[in-house]
Amino acid sequence: MIRVIRAAIVSTLIFAAFGCGDRGAVTKGREFLEMGDLSRALVQFEQAVTRNPRNATAHYLLARTYCLCDSAALAIKEYSILAQLNPEMADDTLLRQRISLYLGLDPYPSDKLTEAKGNDAFPAISGDGKKIAFSSKRDGNTELYIMSGDGGSQQRLTSNPAVDYGPSFSPDGSRLLFVSDREGNDEIYLYDLAAKKETRQTYSKSDDWLPCFSPDGQEVFWVSDRSGRYAVWRMALGSGSPKKENSPQVLFEDQTGEVAYFGLCPGRLIVQRESKNQSFLLSVDISDGRTTEINIPSFRSGIPTIVLPDGKSIAYVSVCDGNDEIYLYQPDQKRSLRLTNNTSEDFVFGFTPDGKKMLYDSDRGGDRDVYLMQLDKLIARDQLLGKITKP
Fold this sequence. Notes:
- The protein is an alpha+beta fold and 391 residues long.
- 24% of the residues lie in helices and 33% in strands.
- The protein has a domain at 2-106: Serine Threonine Protein Phosphatase 5, Tetratricopeptide repeat.
- The protein is built from six helices and 24 strands.
């Protein structure tokens, strides 16, 4: 009897020692993870799961760390184990996002809004998210079109032998700015949706493009090289008569580089500056011109870089994984998430006001079409496990 009791005590002590060991390793691993030391964190979490293979927290942290290290095969393996031990932990947002990419899946579903033959591209969404404008060659020539926010009621707006593209909505959604080469070079035009009337705004021998409305809707901001280098210009919107510009002025110009693209968010411009074959992202205060560089991973210059409506994340395009894909950068976490996952070109153009849907165009269907990605519908755990276990 004494021998049995002694054996039980020894067994309990051994189990306790191993349990304490895995808990201690998890604690140390968390500390390394908070410090950003992923390699040391991995060592601790790997020790923890070795000491106690049933420790779901250790498997969870190990899977997350593998994801942060982009160790795809190991991350998938750990995720599969975690899902059996603790399904709720396997519902973690980061894990589902990363594992879907490693499995060749899009983390979020997309709705295809256009189907016509002929490229549908350069989409823009109204401030209330109820209307989307885009350019299309579906009728033989590149013209402006408009549709509802869900892709319905598609209508042609312009009818001109020239190329009309690059629409941008006014703050109240009643007007569009767009670019056309109908006079031999790119100029900016204004389209009144109610009156169905077009009015030319710029008159320059240089190319004028990337138009957008000022926050109050009274001015047009655009990019032009009329000063000798590409810069952002501003001008009060005109009625078109007389046929001259309303005293255009430089809004932002960089003496050491040129503007490759710019976007607008409350109170500031988000400017892509090119200098010495390098690209930088800048935040420019509209009121006083103060400039701050935004730290962001390498991005595709000349393609939209857009701040989400909540101001907390930035969508950008990069070829870091081999082709044009859309990524979401979270400055507070200094982390990027790949949103699209295919061999086609994907370009981001905007978000619905609540930030739950992303507007983009892609040639994944053969020619370019307009899509809305549902950012509030992350891929489910069961979908991932089905792909993992599928022969």
